[in-house]
Design goal:
Blueprint (H helix, E strand, L loop, with lengths): L10 H28 L2 H23 L1 H10 L8 H7 L11 H12 L3 H4 L2 E2 L5 E2 L3 E8 L2 E8 L3 H19 L8 H14 L2 H15 L5 E2 L12 E5 L4 E2 H7 L3 H22 L1 E3 L7 E3 L5 E3 L5 E3 L2 H9 L3 H5 L1 H10 L9 H18 L7 E2 L4 H15 L16 H18 L4 E2 L7 H4 L1
Parallel strand pairs: 5-10
Antiparallel strand pairs: 1-3, 2-3, 3-4, 4-6, 7-9, 8-11, 9-10, 12-13
Helix pairs in contact: 1-2, 2-3, 2-4, 7-8, 11-17
């Protein structure tokens, strides 16, 4: 794979790259309209999706940073995006062009005043993993095998301008109106900025390890502040397969159940006991070792859950509360789904939609034991998504509603559900996290 000696960091440079990518997409549509004459609609649309996914990904992977992070986030939306986009964007988790060795050396000299070869006993010039915000190199120091994560230059400086360019497209795609929309984009911007603060990530990593390291079948690396700073973070090198590789290769149902239970317990313990959560549940953030122990390795994106959101959010996981109209209506107001300026028609419309969504989405919480390998639940989610995507009554309505905290909480649960399904986790004890409350709080 080729390496990069430079990443576009200026607003004009990055905008130019996005414009050139948009031009390629325009050409693909012209081809699509031509192919519709000679091919079936399905064949023409498949070719369009494949071409667009490749061109968009190729453009984003050279920009890196928040632009590529968006692709990474979208790769988890298996029930929304066409398969071509999911497949291509999933490469952003750990298959993008890395920085060249001279550029890596320059970064180390800027932040440590030393070359990596002077700081460590051994340091691999070639990265072992390159993703959206940083890349990982292997190193050795005092007998320790280490993973050194280096942030790409200019990532934090370009976040605001990248999102400003993406915002009009996102608003059109998701039918978001200008009024009250800024809070959602601000939530995303704040979280992306936090992910570029490696001092914050180091602190969060140490905290989550302390709080969760005694959970069964779960491991964390040690972290080394003395070899870390705001743009470089050093931790133990952990041996294991990426979770996506484990999901593809594993044929052992007991191992799948063990990994799935560890992942579910990890998330439920964070949410219900710590009131914060690792809000980036994609497979690149987890490894699985030879004993089927889950290893969590990245805590750049953590979401605190305020009580005034946590309480109504999980109260609506109770089916009795969902069926109590007075209670349900009150919680929709608390969660900012129903607003004071809604018409009676809008209130009825969105109340019905969110009742159906919540009824389906909270299905796992109605059981003591749940089978995430069963495709029926996920097919129902996909069907419901398609149903509302085609709902003509959505047009003209302001669909940007709900607390800003929904963005990362819903992302967390959608990502977690998808990972549990990919693991093929059966017989998962939904409330198992309650057994750990006394021991670990």
């Amino acid at each position: 794979m080729k390496t990069l000696d430079k990443i576009p960091t200026g607003k004009i440079e990055r905008a130019t790259k996005l414009i050139s990518t948009g031009a390629k997409v325009g050409v693909n549509y012209l081809k699509y309209y031509g192919e519709k004459i000679t091919k079936t609609e399905e064949e023409a649309k498949t070719n369009l999706n494949n071409s667009n996914a490749s061109d968009i990904y190729d453009g984003l992977k050279e920009l890196k940073g928040s632009a590529l992070k968006v692709a990474q986030m979208l790769s988890m939306e298996k029930n929304i995006l066409p398969a071509a986009y999911v497949e291509k964007f999933s490469l952003s988790q750990f298959q993008v062009p890395p920085l060249s060795a001279p550029l890596v050396t320059k970064i180390f000299k800027n932040y440590f005043g030393k070359k990596p070869s002077e700081l460590f006993d051994r340091f691999t010039a070639e990265s072992t993993n390159a993703a959206s915000i940083g890349q990982v190199h292997k190193a050795w120091k005092d007998g320790k095998e280490l993973a050194v994560k280096i942030q790409y230059p200019g990532v934090s400086d370009s976040i605001s301008s990248d999102l400003a360019m993406v915002k009009p497209i996102a608003m059109k795609m998701f039918n978001i109106k200008g009024e009250n929309s800024d809070q959602y984009f601000k939530e995303v911007e704040d979280k992306l900025l936090e992910e570029t603060d490696y001092d914050l990530e180091l602190m969060q990593s140490l905290e989550i390890r302390k709080d969760c390291e005694n959970l069964p079948d779960l491991k964390f690396p040690n972290y080394y502040p003395e070899w870390s700073n705001n743009r470089i973070i050093t931790m133990d090198w952990m041996h294991g397969k990426h979770l996506s590789t484990f999901c593809t290769e594993n044929k052992d149902a007991e191992k799948a159940q063990k990994v799935g239970q560890a992942l579910w317990d990890f998330y439920m313990f964070q949410i219900h006991h710590l009131r914060k959560v690792h809000a980036d549940p994609h497979p690149g953030n987890f490894l699985v070792d030879g004993e089927a122990t889950l290893i969590a390795i990245d805590f750049g994106c953590m979401k605190s859950i305020p009580d005034d959101f946590y309480r109504p959010y999980f109260e609506l996981a109770n089916r009795e509360n969902l069926e109590n109209k007075i209670f349900f209506d009150r919680k929709l107001v608390e969660l900012e789904i129903i607003r004071s300026d809604d018409s009676a028609e809008d209130k009825a419309f969105f109340t019905q939609i969110f009742h159906e969504l919540l009824y389906l989405f909270t299905t796992p919480f109605q059981e003591e034991i749940f089978d995430f390998s069963d495709g029926k639940f996920f097919a129902a989610i996909a069907d419901l998504g398609q149903k509302y995507a085609k709902n003509t009554q959505m047009k003209g309505r302001n669909v940007n509603r709900g607390s800003r905290h929904f963005i990362y909480m819903n992302r967390t649960f959608f990502g977690l559900y998808n990972l549990m399904h990919d693991i093929k986790a059966k017989n998962i004890r939904i409330n198992n996290y309650k057994n750990f409350e006394k021991n670990f709080r």
